[in-house]
Design a protein that fits this description.
By secondary structure, the protein is an alpha/beta fold. It has 2 domains: 5-178, HUPs (Rossmann fold), CATH 3.40.50; 191-279, 2-Layer Sandwich (Pantoate--beta-alanine Ligase, Chain: A,domain 2). The chain has helices at 10-17, 34-47, 69-74, 79-89, 99-102, 122-125, 129-144, 156-168, 198-204, 206-219, 224-237, and strands at residues 5-7, 23-28, 54-59, 93-95, 148-152, 174-178, 242-250, 264-272, 275-282. The strands form 2 sheets. Strands 1-4-3-2-5-6 form a 6-stranded parallel sheet, sandwiched between helices. Strand 5 (148-152), helix 8 and strand 6 (174-178) form a beta-alpha-beta unit.
Length: 284
């Protein structure tokens, strides 16, 4: 198996890409699980028909999208492990920058103002989060000039923020959104899951189950607002310390839904054992 090329500076990225085309980019914050690896594999599969293409993965724990310094400090990291997993999944080029490389101290602090879809939900509960997300993703797009970029649907609001940024700024990149990868019991895979005790991990799946119940009520035309309240009660009963939101929203605008209809999603965020989890399911 060919070794993955590891680079740490923007100049090295551009030298490594050379004349490769197309470029398939998977932006990540590392500590890979099957969700990340499925994105890399999808990119590698897309490359099969493009022999001159290149699968690039960025691994950068972006400080500007963390509103809680403790959360940033606790985010798991293991570059050696991630490099090995990325190679096995089909990565050609792995970018491992420092914060100083991505945000030089003399750069002036330019940031991207995210679109309206960023205002509610995560935007309310994590002030500044989507400013950091939009800024770092735009920087990565300008560093790699990818033809295709891959994101997981678990972070649905993030997907919508990036999609609108691409549209509004006329960025020449195609976004490929891939389904949420779940554990056998249904819990959405997340690097943060590793911080849960065995007991909390067993209870964490209640977020997914609660969202399924909400989505089912909405799909059947029932009063999904009441089901959202029942879902919150269910989570507290399961041992969650807090529930930031459980809601049914328009999948494009992220505005709260007032009635059943097409294109809806049930979304939620809740904290158990100090670990904040998010998830969403489509209302079919």
């Amino acid at each position: 198996m060919p070794a993955v090329e590891i680079v740490r500076t923007i100049d090295e990225v551009r030298d490594a890409i050379g004349g490769a085309s197309p470029v398939f980019l998977v932006p990540t914050m590392g500590y890979f699980h099957e969700g990340h690896l499925s994105l890399i594999r999808t990119a590698a599969e897309d490359k099969v028909s493009e022999p001159e293409g290149l699968v690039a993965v960025s691994l950068f724990v972006n400080p500007t999208q963390f509103n809680d310094p403790k959360d940033l400090e606790a985010y798991p990291r293991d570059e050696e492990r991630d490099a090995a997993l990325a190679r096995e999944a089909g990565c050609d080029l792995l970018f491992l920058p420092t914060a100083r490389e991505m945000y030089p101290p003399d750069e002036g602090g330019t940031r991207v103002m995210p679109p309206r879809v960023a205002r509610k939900w995560e935007g309310e509960h994590r002030p500044g989060h989507f400013v950091g997300v939009a800024t770092v993703v735009l920087k990565l797009f300008h560093i790699f000039f990818p033809d295709v970029a891959y994101f997981g649907e678990k972070d649905w609001q993030q997907c919508r923020v990036i999609a609108e940024m691409v549209r509004d700024l006329n960025l020449p990149v195609w976004l490929k959104l891939c389904p949420t990868v779940r554990e056998p019991d249904g819990l959405a895979m997340s690097s943060r899951n590793t911080r849960l005790s065995k007991e909390a991990r067993a209870r964490a799946v209640e977020l997914y189950r609660a969202l399924l119940a909400v989505a089912d009520a909405a799909a059947r035309g029932e009063d999904f607002q009441k089901e959202c309240e029942r879902a919150k009660e269910r989570l507290f009963a399961a041992g969650f310390e807090s529930v930031d939101y459980i809601a049914v929203v328009d999948g494009e605008t992220l505005e709260p839904a007032s009635a059943p209809g097409p294109g809806l999603r049930a979304i939620g965020a809740a904290t158990i054992e100090g670990v904040r989890l998010i998830d969403n399911v489509s209302v079919d």
